[in-house]
Amino acid sequence: MATTDDGTRTTFLREVRSAVTPHASLLVLGVLGLMIAFITSYTGAFHHPGPADVPFGVVAPAQARGQLVGKLSRLPGSPLDPRAVPSERAARARLADRTLDGVLIVDPRGRTDRLLVASGGGASLAQAVELVVRSAEQAERRTVRTVDVIPADPGDSRSLSSFYLVVGWCVGGYLCAAILAISAGARPSNGHRAVIRLAALAVYAIAAGLAGTLIVGPVLGALPGTFFGLWGLGALVVFAVGATTLACQALLGIIGIGLAILLIVILGNPSAGGAYPYPMLPPFWRALGPALPPGAGTWAARSLAYFRGNAVTGPLLVLSAWAAGGTVITLARSILRTKDGNPS
């Protein structure tokens, strides 16, 4: 009977080792780490949103301008970063080019001032700025009337369509790249195969950019803006994310998929400025977001939709850098492996 028990136990242990190999165990631990990072990143970014150092303009008579800017800069928690603006026309221009997120225009002959906001850049930020300014105005026994000079489209609830569009493009980019690589091994076997995969990714990116633009534009009417501009942006976002994923896989094999998810999903999405624009995020996510594809894509999509394409140069350079970097690393790693006589 003891022998039978020992034999059963040995067989069971063999089955366990066969079902869950040491390599699989390490991958499962990696997945656990990604899950913990996901929870930490999203909760850390979103658990306590609030405005901090929001670029803010003040249009007021010369004799009161400096004093008002000083009072607004000393508000508890530093929600605003105020600066004087010479005129309402200049203020509207700075809202349109996205250098300011709100402007207070003081009425020197009355006690009702105007607050200019642009909810197309993020409804949550516009509302947060309004709450801060109303509270400050009440303390001075003044009232404020809010004017949304660049409102979100009626079909774009809370100006989130651009964010979800870019997230969809990012998901499509890294899933396409993962499938291209895993279908024949986790690493490109040689330079020729790497070129073919990158070319296939480019074709896919063009199609994905077109599909996303058609859905949010003509099909659903969820996002205004230039059709060809959004299409081009979509193709660039998808290719940048896909090329980055291929590069991660070229360097690390299947573990590279986890690294791509860490960069794009776990770090990129909560810091993208979607639900909460950059001035409402904690410092780490606020600094990180513009440098990652989801943040650069979301900013550019909103600029194309609502701000006539202003302030897109920086985000487009960021996306281009990810696309170029991913391409170079993928090709270089593939060629080097072939020269080393290890074609995978």
Description:
With 344 residues, this protein is an alpha/beta fold. The protein has 2 domains: 54-148, D-Maltodextrin-Binding Protein, domain 2; 157-339, no CATH class. It has helices at 2-19, 22-46, 62-73, 88-96, 123-139, 161-182, 191-219, 227-252, 255-268, 283-288, 293-306, 313-339; strands spanning 54-59, 80-84, 102-105, 112-117, 143-148. It has a 5-stranded mixed β-sheet with strand order 2-1-3-4-5, sandwiched between helices. Helix 6 packs antiparallel against helix 7 and helix 8 packs parallel to helix 12 (313-339). The longest helix has 29 residues, at 191-219. The two termini are 49 Å apart.
List the helices and strands and how they pair.
Elements: H1 2-19, H2 22-46, E1 54-59, H3 62-73, E2 80-84, H4 88-96, E3 102-105, E4 112-117, H5 123-139, E5 143-148, H6 161-182, H7 191-219, H8 227-252, H9 255-268, H10 283-288, H11 293-306, H12 313-339
Parallel strand pairs: 1-2, 1-3, 4-5
Antiparallel strand pairs: 3-4
Which short descriptors sum up this protein?
344 residues; D-Maltodextrin-Binding Protein, domain 2; 2 domains; alpha/beta; 12 helices
Concise summary:
With 344 residues, the protein is α/β, with parallel strands linked by helices. It is built from 12 helices and 5 strands.
Question: Could you name the ranges where pLDDT drops below 50 across 5 or more consecutive residues?
Answer: none
Largest sheet: 5 strands, mixed
Reading side by side through the largest sheet, how are the strands ordered? 2-1-3-4-5
- Overall number of strands: 5
State which percent range the strand residues make up. Answer: 5-15%
Mean pLDDT: 92
Share of residues in helices? 55-70%
Radius of gyration (CA) equals 25 Å
Q: Can you tell me the overall shape?
A: elongated
Which H/E pattern describes the elements?
HHEHEHEEHEHHHHHHH
